[in-house]
Amino acid sequence: MNNLILYLLCSYLIGSLPIGELVARLKTGNSLIQPGSRNTRPPGEMFATLGIFTGILVCLIDGLKGFLTVYPLAIYFLGENPYQNWLAVSLAGFLTVFGHCNSLFLGFRGGRGLAPTFGVMITLLPIPALLASLLGFWLAFWGTSSKPGALSAAGAMPLLSIAWVMLIRPDEL
Question: Which of 4, 98, 116, 147 has the most CB within a 10 Å radius?
Answer without folding.
Answer: 116
